Amino acid sequence: MTEFQTDPAAIPVTRTDWPAARRIIRSLYPPIDLFEDIADPEDWPLLMSAEQKTNPRLAQTIGNLDLVPPARRVGGEGASYLMAPFTHTSTDRPSRFSDGRLGVLYIAEDFETAVQETAHHHARFMAATDEVPGWTSQFRELVLRVGADLHDIRGSGDTALLGEDYAAPQALAAVLRGHGADGILYPSVRGEGACVGLFYPDLAHDPRQGRHLDYHWNGDRVDMIRDTASGDIFRLIPPER
User: Fold this and answer.
1) Bridge partner residues of 21 (DSSP)
2) What local confidence, expressed as pLDDT, does residue 85 receive?
């Protein structure tokens, strides 16, 4: 690997303040009551211990809370959207900056970038499972604030960090985590904007629900999205690279 991939000191740190960033998630995941209703995370372990005696499925719903340091946990309205990516992890679902053992919260700076990113990954899933063309899964848009000092790889010129092979970016993220970094600021691989991969949930704030969306799979890619409230349909044009 290059020095840029292994030496945190070689990577600039940029203050990233996005007042209306976007994240798009599948609509099938309901809020987690513990995160939403109990605002003080310090109370969670005791409540979980008591509740699990009568509700053995609680741990499955909440996930592995130990993966988030107590000081970095968030609670209250919308907290599920911030906590769930860190407590529900699996090596069967690796991502660009994680092998699946630790969570990452991926957020785009604008709606168009978020759509392009999620459309790409949804298309990969649809192709892998040999799904027939048509309107498929429902998604929800989240609008939230990002405020963090992040290691900025937008000007690195290191194509290995943005390719389809995640080995190099996962290795970089592991090194950065080991040096106490909060996350990575990087250019969107699918859209025209930028994205962040946050290592902790307390770096994003005030998530609120935006639009509900349907994605259309044409057998090759996601070519259209539909606003379920208005019925408006938008065609997706792949960005030129």
Assistant:
1) 144
2) 94
pTM: 0.88
90-105 tens-digit pLDDT: 999 999 999 999 999 9
* Main-chain phi, psi angles of 63, to 5 degrees: 90, -160
Q: How high is the pLDDT of residue 50? A: 44
Task: Please state the domain extents for the chain.
Answer: 3-235
Work out whether strand 183-187 and strand 134-152 pair parallel, antiparallel, or are unpaired. Answer: parallel
